[in-house]
Model the fold of this input.
Amino acid sequence: MTRHMDIPWWRDAVVYEIYVRSFADASGDGVGDLAGARERLTHLKELGVDAVWLTPFYTSPMADGGYDVADYRDVDPLFGSLADFDALVADAHALGLRVLVDIVPNHSSEAHPWFQAARRGEGRDRYIFRDRPNNWQSTFSGPAWTRLPDGSWYLHLFAPGQPDFNWRNPEVRAEFLDILRFWLDRGVDGFRIDVAMGLFKAEGLPDVEDQSFMSDSPVWGQPEVHGVYREWRELLDSYPGERMAVGEVWTDTLEDLALYVRPDELQQSFNFAWLQAPWSATAFRKVIDETLATVPFATWVLSNHDVVRHVTRYETADPGTGLSRAKAALLAMLALPGSAYLYQGEELGLPQVQDIPPEARQDPVFIQSEGKLPGRDGCRVPMPWSPGGDSFGFSPEGVTPWLPQPGSFAALSVASQTGDPGSTLEFYRRALACRRELVRTIPYELEWLASDEDALVFARGPLVCALNCGTRPVRLPPHENVLLATGPVEGGLLPPDHAVWLQRQVS
Ligand code: GLC
Done:
């Protein structure tokens, strides 16, 4: 069977998130940058991904690691220049890698010229100003309102340095269309949309009892947001080359998520239900069934720069379980219909770094909560590229990286794992190479096969994937041969915390 030409590239793509600050530092200031990412593109090519997503590299005071943008059309000197960006895109494209950039439309930085003007009392209608605050809380903890010296209050659902835009103002709408055009004209293949369910707030800004992502929340997911994505979709479709957008959409239900991926809106949305599911075959099966029933193009993700790395999330009292489960979950994820998003370092099996000293922590979540919440620095520790040196090859020698790396990163570095068939990195490379071959031939549709309750067993045409979430070995279905496994498969039995891809037996 040949692949249909009308299947868009992103439908089955594996996208790798580069958290730019922590990927590779070429300039030698301890912070990752675009030139560093460019130098390391071959790692991604060898890994076998289809696209990269670059987290924000725009001009920013870094109140939230760059998710506070002061100029949406320029590169912060910390990360390089527009010329570095163009060179990175050109090299990525030459290697056959697509490039997605992060767009942050819910809020700007307080250093954005519009907010600077608003502080002076000019053009305040581009933001959300009130004489009195309501009871909304910042996602990072503390009140969502800050008072200016003239007594007025502005809304920030995140840090005080991230004032929320007023999307009811047409000027904001027009500005973002223009920003999207700016990057599309520079050749990006698409966008990751930050806080995509934010943007609009209910008229009147009513007080809330609960600020979670409920369907009827006045804070998140207002119906007006869909009009924006319809406009963005028209713009994307007006460019050649299947430009796309993936939304960072946190919702309570998959039905709410599906609203963002209607045929004339975003092509994709992150499926956080998969990431949030506990280690349980029943829970995984439910998410898979609901996802495939509700969204036209599925996506899967296990880790990103905002959550605890999945090796650590899956850890139990039994050391090593977390890594085994992480590899098994990856194999299941890569066999599912749709596209998969990987987060830098997961191919090395990096754990969450738990023991970052308080004085080294930089996440506004830690700072705003006065240390009550650990924040997200633990999943953002700079990548180890080689076993030795001052920063395991992240920065040039003699430079201290912006977050301290634990000594355990030496053995986990790219160079340490390369060529070792038992390493996590070589496992990822094999899995991605095998998937690349498979997706060309297997159908999108998934079929459940009879299995033990604690196991997930499904087929897509000739491929069978089995994942054992239980505590006892499970018997595998009849098969021709084993394509790939996270561990030993002997006597037709799959051990707990392992997964396997099988070639289905033709009856
Ligand atoms: C998104 C980003 C996160 C950031 C927040 C505010 O959730 O992924 O890192 O802090 O938006 O922009």
About this structure: The radius of gyration is 23 Å. The chain has a mean pLDDT of 96. The pocket of alpha-D-glucopyranose is lined by residues 64, 67, 104, 158, 194-195, 248, 305-306 (CB under 6 Å). Residues 170-185 form the longest helix (16 residues).
